[in-house]
Write a structure and sequence with these properties.
Elements lengths: L5 H21 L3 H4 L5 H13 L2 H13 L6 H25 L6 H8 L8 H10 L2 H10 L2 H22 L12 H17 L7 H30 L14 H15 L5 H10 L3 H8 L2 H8 L11 H32 L2 H20 L3
Helix pairs in contact: 1-3, 1-4, 1-12, 1-13, 1-14, 1-16, 3-11, 3-16, 4-10, 4-12, 5-6, 5-17, 7-10, 8-10, 9-10, 11-12, 14-16
Length: 364
């Protein structure tokens, strides 16, 4: 069995912390409350830009790790059970503690979180899962030259052209879609199959990430000032600020290659291996619609009135606190899943379905 890449596990944790930062800045109200063109807004924009590639990192990691592994639908089933666990439990807690916050529609959505897009990333991921075995088959049969051409085509069609056009030309929903997640999976697979000879320079990859963040941030600041001078208000559409932006995509690629090349010692490595599986539950807990609306919304707006250093410290520290609390809560869920042998059940369900389908699939 291939040894786990501890650097990639660390990136999973880092990227989830970055996702929480994005949510604090946006749903938490920091950006909305910051005065236009102020130092506070510039600081918040910098934090947002630095964290914006987090979702792309997760998509790339899926392909980077999965391209040389046999995809198991039992893993997807176990993930679905984890999602359903949190949607049902959190909905039940709110129904008990905040009467009136839960109605029939909320209950229905809790039982079918994927179909009702309780979490957009989860829905997009499950939409992509069906095709992962075919993606792997494609990627592993192409030559390195063909892989590079595939990657270049994806970047040009789904990243560069929409950015130049400033329009969602090919309907990727600006990155919130099965299509974009599939593109990221393929790109992550190409990185794994073609990037080994060039991925052993973490410092240079870190510099590329920093350069992409700086370029995106400066373009955003320039756009804000130009639009404010012309119209008196900030522009909603800003060049380079989207998941499909070339600079945001390149920043994610740089982080994946940087973390993949890290040499992590055995003691810290074992700790990372044990806690990184909890990272995704941080998203499931804090981004649950009820927590999103009743707890996170506007909760951090006060940071917009603080000096830049305190604003940055508050956002980063708040994100870390949310990450830590949600991870500790997930320890209980992980224990329950082990007690009820959820992983074994998922494997059994996969094998049972495979046995039923095999005669049909084996027919000429």
């Amino acid at each position: 069995m291939e040894q786990r890449n501890r650097g990639i596990d660390l990136l999973r944790m880092t990227a989830m912390w970055m996702v929480v930062i994005l949510h604090i800045l946006n749903k938490g109200g920091v950006l909305a409350a910051a005065a236009p063109l102020s130092a506070g807004q510039g600081t918040a924009r910098l934090l947002e830009t630095a964290a914006y590639c987090a979702v792309n990192c997760y998509g790339l990691i899926s392909g980077y790790v999965g391209v040389q592994r046999r995809f198991r639908y039992s893993g997807a089933l176990a993930l679905w059970l984890r999602v359903a666990f949190y949607t049902l439990v959190i909905t039940a807690v709110f129904a008990c503690l905040m009467p009136g916050s839960v109605n029939g529609d909320r209950v229905l959505r809790a039982f079918f979180p994927v179909l009702f897009r309780q979490y957009w990333y989860v829905t997009a991921y499950f939409g992509m899962c069906l095709f992962i075995p075919f993606f792997n088959l494609l990627l592993n049969r192409l030559s390195k030259g063909q892989l590079r051409l595939l990657a270049l085509s994806i970047v040009l069609v789904f990243s560069v052209l929409p950015t130049l056009r400033q329009k969602d030309v090919f309907l990727t929903d600006n990155g919130y879609s099965v299509l974009w997640l599939s593109c990221l999976y393929l790109l992550g697979g190409v990185l794994r199959l073609c990037g080994r000879q060039t991925s052993r320079r973490p410092a240079s990859r870190g510099a590329i990430y920093a350069g992409c963040v700086l370029a995106t941030w400066l373009v955003r600041l320039a756009g804000d000032r130009l639009w404010m001078a012309r119209t008196g208000h900030l522009c909603d559409k800003v060049l380079l600020t989207a998941y499909t932006s070339p600079t945001v995509l390149l920043a994610a690629v740089a982080l994946v290659l940087c973390f993949a090349a890290l040499n992590i010692g055995p003691r810290f490595g074992r700790f990372i291996e044990s806690v990184s599986p909890l990272a995704f539950s941080v998203y499931l807990i804090h981004a649950h619609p009820l927590i999103w609306e009743h707890w996170l919304a506007g909760r951090f707006a006060f940071l917009a009135y603080k000096p830049p250093i305190l604003l940055a410290s508050g956002v980063l520290g708040g994100a870390f606190a949310i990450y830590l609390v949600c991870s500790l809560a997930d320890v209980l869920r992980a224990g329950l899943f082990r007690l009820f042998r959820v992983k074994a059940f998922s494997r059994w369900a996969e094998e049972a379905v495979s046995a039923r389908l095999r005669p049909w699939l084996d027919k000429e």
